[in-house]
């Protein structure tokens, strides 16, 4: 994420369940820490709300959205928009709704073809 500083986050508020992860405020991704020393810290020390509460408290620390977008590829070929990757990674409820409707329509047409 172009050298963006990250924030620690836990996946659970209960102790001894998960180790700490890091949250990138630019891409909103969760990653494992690079350091083994950091990877051994219990995630409950930071909890699930720390990065979000920190960014709400310090809105000047919120970075701008990245200008470049990630284009998934398999062996150099772009992944088609109808694949499960795009169904699971679309941002916003409008896109999710259109994907749900298109999958319903494709199921209906598939069921009609089976009946014939």
Structure overview:
With 116 residues, the chain is an alpha+beta fold. Helices cover 35% and strands 12% of the residues. It is built from four helices and five strands; from the N terminus they run βββααββαα. It has helices spanning 36-39, 50-57, 84-89, 93-115; strands at residues 7-9, 21-24, 29-31, 73-74, 77-78. Strands 1-2-3 form a three-stranded antiparallel sheet, with no helix packed on it. Strands 4-5 form a two-stranded antiparallel sheet. The longest helix has 23 residues, at 93-115.
Fraction in helix: 25-40%
Note the overall shape: globular
Structural class category: alpha+beta
Largest sheet: 3 strands, antiparallel
What percent of residues are in strands?
5-15%
Reading side by side through the largest sheet, how are the strands ordered? 1-2-3
Mean pLDDT metric: 80
Low-confidence stretches: 92-104
Q: Give the terminus-to-terminus CA distance.
A: 51 Å
Q: Return the string of H and E elements.
A: EEEHHEEHH
Number of strands: 5
Q: Give the number of helices.
A: 4
Radius of gyration over C-alpha positions, nearest whole angstrom: 20 Å
């Amino acid at each position: 994420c172009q050298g963006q500083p990250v924030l620690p986050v836990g996946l659970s508020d209960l102790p001894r369940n998960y180790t700490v992860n890091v949250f990138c405020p630019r891409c909103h991704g969760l990653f494992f820490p690079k350091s083994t020393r950091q990877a051994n810290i219990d995630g409950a020390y930071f909890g699930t709300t720390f990065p979000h509460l920190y960014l709400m408290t310090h809105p000047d620390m919120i970075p701008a959205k990245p200008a470049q977008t990630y284009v998934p590829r398999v062996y150099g070929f772009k992944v088609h928009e109808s694949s499960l990757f795009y169904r699971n990674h679309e941002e916003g409820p409008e896109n999710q709704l259109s994907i749900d409707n298109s999958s319903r329509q494709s199921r209906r047409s598939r069921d009609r073809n089976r009946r014939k």
